[in-house]
Amino acid sequence: MRVILMGPPGAGKGTQADLLINKLGILHISTGDMFRKALKEKTSLGLEAKKYMDAGELVPDNVTVGIVKERLAEPDCKKGFLLDGFPRTIPQADALENTIKELGAGLDKVINIAVDRDVLVQRLTGRRVCKECGATYHVMFNPPKAKDVCDDCGGGLYQRSDDTVETVNNRLLVYEEQTAPLIDYYRKKDLLLEVNGDQEVEQVTNDILRALGRVKA
């Protein structure tokens, strides 16, 4: 099964992806993780992507398409994948369609996790990350036992530069202007399945599996 997981920043795509890959038995491919790894290792791609990510803007298509194309061509993707964070624009979607065709395969479904804007802002601006181990918390929904201290390793927590109110609003604006049109793009191709993301995590997972026909209605 080859599935795209869509939704605005803060919709819970990463959380759902981790749960879904185990239930579906497919590989999780996240462009966000790819870019953060490249940034940590200070590769040329990471340095190029950093200025866009810090500003809450989309990484240019030529950079993103290239790295995704190389990843999908690797042997472990042959059994299927769940693609998270790509495509984000119509040109990227066209490039992805061509890439998958070149690999002799096709896209099965596109899941869109829908969440109200106010809820997204609340989710994103409250996120805190451990400087040492990378564990993620939320000041309202998943606070640490001690303020600004990681439960797991005792490291200090910080707010990522792309989680400030100004940057979050810019990220959502970029999504609304450039990525949201993909909803109609995939609806016209009869690939789109929409799920309410403003629910408990388990319910969202069940709704996605039901939409994919993996659990009974």
What does this protein look like?
This protein is an alpha/beta fold and 217 residues long. The protein has one domain (2-116, 170-211): 3-Layer(aba) Sandwich (Rossmann fold), CATH 3.40.50.300. It has 9 helices and 8 strands. The protein has helices at residues 13-24, 31-40, 44-54, 61-72, 90-102, 117-125, 165-179, 181-188, 201-211; strands spanning 2-6, 27-30, 81-84, 109-114, 127-130, 136-138, 157-158, 192-196. The protein has a 5-stranded parallel sheet, sandwiched between helices. It has a 3-stranded antiparallel sheet with strand order 6-5-7. Strand 5 (127-130) and strand 6 (136-138) form a beta hairpin. It is globular.
Short description:
This protein is α/β, with parallel strands linked by helices.
List the main descriptive attributes of the protein structure presented here:
Rossmann fold, five-stranded parallel β-sheet, three-stranded antiparallel β-sheet
Just give the CATH class: Alpha Beta
| Overall form | globular
The share of residues in extended strands comes to 15-25%
Uncertain regions: pLDDT < 50 for 5+ in a row?
Answer: none
Q: Supply the number of structural domains.
A: 1
CATH architecture: 3-Layer(aba) Sandwich
Round the mean pLDDT to the nearest integer and report it. Answer: 89
Helix coverage percent of residues?
A: 40-55%
CATH fold description: Rossmann fold
Q: Widest sheet: strand order?
A: 2-3-1-4-8
CATH superfamily name?
P-loop containing nucleotide triphosphate hydrolases
Structural class: alpha/beta
Radius of gyration: 17 Å
Main pleated-sheet profile: 5 strands, parallel
Query: What is the first-to-last residue Cα distance?
Result: 20 Å
Q: Can you write the helix and strand succession as a string?
A: EHEHHHEHEHEEEHHEH
